Amino acid sequence: MSAPSVAPLRDTYPTRLDHAAQPIARIEPTVWATEFSGPLDAGALETMDRRGYLLRPSTVGPDWIPPLTQELERIGSALGDDPRIIREPGGSVRSIFQPHVLSEVIEEVLGLDTVLPVARQLLGSDVYLHQARINVMPGFVGTGFYWHSDFETWHAEDGMPSMRAVSCSISLSDNFPYNGALMVMPGSHRTFYPCVGQTPADNHRNSLVKQELGVPDRATLTEAATRFGIDQAVGTAGTGLWFDSNLMHGSGSNITPFPRSNVFLVFNSVENQLGRPYAAASPRPEYLAAREVQPLGSGL
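Structure tokens predicted for Ectoine hydroxylase:
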């Protein structure tokens, strides 16, 4: 089914303001279903609810890593100047969007028993793919991603009304503490931090290379890091990191010889479909934010 073009609902999480604003307590739950609705047990659901993220080793088995890595290399070399490929200023690939459209192998990952049922359980409904990408951080030259909440961008620029989306980042290489592994602020998903600054036209052209708008200021980040602390999401290739749409996260640059890459899948509830952007003149392209709602697999 296709999402209609509708006006945004009342803005519960105003952002991209012309002035600093106080943090806003989250309204929605983090976990929308129970242990009887999917593969996660009560302990895993409690961890997700409390910390905003969950590590799941062996989300894909060792036999998946070589073909997925080969697909990454094939897609990156085949697309050329396609807008779905985001490059570093030096020309190396940073991200590839819509890889599931470009690769049957990657599309298969969506339906794995270790992936789709978890997304449904966490969101308590049928789900569709809001966004998918491959992130690449090569050795020596891979640059990081500044601290941000994904929901802030999806709300402001895509028109996502509520915090009812979850990301699954599946590592294709070992994530060490020293090769740009993702850092998260556990518990920060329960607080929304409004950001300052008006969204310019086609902001995604710059923000996907270096995000400077839609990020909290340093004083806010200092307060948040002091309050919540910082964890590093490390693990062997094949590990899945599930994290809430509003979790504050970021990564440092990779100056080691060891590359880091991951398949990044964003699942949104079919009950949380996009409207008009809350803080942008027009929505981002479909390859960044799917506006056609196609439920994945069968229902709960």
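The first helix runs from residue 42 to 51.
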